[in-house]
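<instruction>
Derive structure tokens from the sequence
<data>
Labelled lines for chain and fold:
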Amino acid sequence: MKRVPFTSRRRFLGQSVAAIGFPSIIPASVLGEKAPSNKITMAVIGWGMMGPSNTSKFLGESDCQIVAACDIDKRALQKALDTVNAAYKNQDCQGYHDYREVMARKDIDTVMLAVPDNWHALTAIEAAKNGKDIYGEKPLARTIAEQQAIVKAVQKHGRIWQTGSWQRSESNFRIGAEVVRNGLIGKLREVHVGLPAGHNDFAKTGDKRNVTPPPSELDYEMWIGPAMMQDYIECRVHKNWRWDYNIGGGQLLDWIGHHCDIAHWGMDCDNNGPVEVKPIQVDMPPRSDIWNTATKYRAEAKYHGNITMTIAGGHGDIQMGTKWIGTDGWVYVNRGGAYDCSNAAFKKIIKKRQNEKDPNSPVVEGSAAPKLGDDVIKTRLYETPGHWRNFLDCVKSRQPTVTPVETAHHSSIPGHLALIAMMVNRSLKWDPAKQEIIGDAEASKLLGRDYRGPWKLEA
């Protein structure tokens, strides 16, 4: 009798997938395993400001295969496809207009979401419902209600989530937070969260501030999505949507998920938040302006333990970055490896630790120098091999990432509350356990907003 060649389950699935027109990459979810040899399949959703850089990071990981790209602007979609296909030297990456078609593909394990804030909730929830692990951008969503819905969906469907708050994967931010968490600046009293001010013309649109028909390549109806419909004006669409409260949240919400995220890390507030937020000052254009988000702002958030956080943009006394101030000193961190502290000996040692291959090893400089080993740093914070690498590793291990969805939610809440407080021009009491504004019906309405039909927010 002629022997029939053995066809493994892996080979059979590969032949089946190829037969229906998908690239012959076998997703780990189909095989029911997360072995290191498996490619983690990914779709990239959105090709604006963060799409290209995030995609570049994932293209550099050998165990990740990008198999699909989606954008509602044909020009952006073509750039995405060209980028991915050039990297792989083939034409296998498939393009999509509707994110729901991407989420429905069973051969896709993960999605990278880089869409405007008004679309964060709907795309994330659809991904979670379809069993995708998610790399999403900050802030978690445009409103607190949307953030709560995302958290609920991710938890309900057991998905791995990584937020693009990549500062947590940089050593200076981690070490600074460790110094605070270990009491090396004494009892924490004050925190400064310095953010940018003003508006930036990221899309370089110049004076294109008139109402015009949308370009034929852009599905503007879909781009507006659940937000209020408004006339097409080029300078408030791609990249510059941040400066329109209908879509984004200005510099405050664009950056709160970075420096407040680090502040919370040092404060041990990843699952907590303020009890009161007070508006101090805001320069806000009329709501009828094309760019109507706050250009200069300042608010104070009160936390349990008599800790005050100042959130400010455009104020010289609050440096860009994060600064913790305690009874025995202070520590400051910012991008570009910036690290400073009031203790000169700690500062010198920490700089050396940042440059060491093993930053957790004890370091002693001279007999009198303090040692920042396990005898001093008893609480070690989550260290990653890189933010995008951390996401892929956690997809395999099913362990939480360094910035899971709950952390992203709580990191953004102070910014959302500050914005609401500025809009109603009064202090707000917040219950961090119940996640609700206390005794202010008008302000409470701003925790969410009505969706334009046919879109609905359902976790």
Residues 171-380+406-445 form a domain with the Dihydrodipicolinate Reductase; domain 2 fold (CATH 3.30.360.10).
